[in-house]
Amino acid sequence: MKKSLVYSVFAIILVSFSCQKLNSPDKPDNLIAEDKMVEILTDIAFVKAAKGSYKKVFDIQKINPESYILEKHGIDSLVFEANNNWYTSQLDQYEEIFNKVKSNLEVSKIKFEKLKKEEDSLKKISDSIKRVKNNLKDDKILPEDLDELESIKEELMDVEKENAVKKRSLPNAASGKKKQ
Q1: What is this structure's pTM?
Q2: CA dist 101 to 27, 40, 86, 110, Å?
């Protein structure tokens, strides 16, 4: 009986000491707002990706992208480090920040892919026009053929105009939903 009482007291003491809060960093005097932290971390993610792909360019130009990002946001490395340490001790908040960063990266990826598709389609149209012009030089073309080419060109331009209008209206609709 005495042994079980001693073990119980020992277990309670052990549990109470193990549940003590670890020393977490103090909240910085100049706390960076969550939205600003999301912007900074998103920029850092872009730079790390670019640095991996274009390391030689960064080395040749002697560019320090991390310094550039901190200057862009008007903070120094000590302020960022203190804020980053504090946010890492706030796990729920930090997880939310990283979810927003991830979302920003996904949105940027989608925008890039759309621009790439548009660029590719414009290049195809340009290549087609060049081929037709080269064929014009090689062959004798009748005036009605030129009229047909002109109408095809106009149709392609109309399609591109419609795509541009759709593209402009989509981000506005999406940003309106986010604000609500």
Answers
A1: 0.56
A2: 22, 9, 18, 14
Q: Which residues in the chain come in under a pLDDT of 70? A: 1-22, 136-146, 170-180
pLDDT tens, 90-109? 888 999 998 999 999 999 98
- Beta-strand ranges (E) seen in 57-169 are none
Q: Tokens 């020393």 belong to which residue? A: 23
pLDDT digits (tens, 9 = 90+) for 54-75: 778 877 888 787 888 888 999 9
CA 150, distance to chain mean position in Å, is: 41
Q: What is the total residue count of the chain? A: 180
Gap between the Cα atoms of 123 and 155, Å rounded = 16
Both ends of the chain: CA-CA distance in Å?
65
